[in-house]
């Protein structure tokens, strides 16, 4: 097996790993969105502690959205790199 083929296998493994991270991060994001929704409702009728909780959960949602976006961009870059390597092998 040549060097390019080995690189392709490593890229495929990395892409699979990132896709799994994307799946898990997406699930966790949905949980945080649900918690944020509940916290916002509580903040609407509650006091300062409820509003602080709502700010924290909103920050968690933003953080996970950013992480998911970054992972998706990384996967896209690796897919493009993989396609370039496949093109060279032809």
What would you say about this model in short?
The chain is mainly alpha-helical. The chain has helices spanning 3-45, 48-89. It contains 2 helices and no strands.
How many beta-strand elements?
0
Query: Helix segment count?
Result: 2
H and E string:
HH
Structural class estimated from helices and strands: mainly alpha
Largest sheet: none
Could you tell me the mean pLDDT? 95
C-alpha end-to-end distance: 15 Å
Q: Helix proportion of residues, in percent?
A: over 70%
Strand content: under 5%
What's the structural blueprint in terms of helices and strands?
Layout: H1 3-45, H2 48-89
Helix pairs in contact: 1-2
What does the model show?
The chain is rod-shaped and about 65 Å long. It has one domain. It contains two helices and no strands. It starts with a helix and ends with a helix. By secondary structure, it is mostly helical. It has helices at residues 3-45, 48-89. The relative contact order is 0.16. The model has no long low-confidence stretch (mean pLDDT 95).
């Amino acid at each position: 097996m040549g060097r390019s083929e080995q690189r392709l296998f490593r890229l495929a493994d990395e892409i699979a790993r990132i896709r799994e991270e994307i799946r898990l991060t997406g699930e966790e994001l949905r949980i945080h969105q649900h918690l944020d929704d509940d916290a916002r409702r509580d903040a609407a009728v509650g006091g300062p502690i409820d509003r602080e909780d709502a700010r924290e959960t909103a920050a968690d949602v933003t953080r996970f959205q950013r992480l998911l976006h970054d992972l998706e961009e990384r996967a896209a870059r690796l897919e493009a790199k993989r396609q370039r390597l496949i093109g060279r092998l032809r």
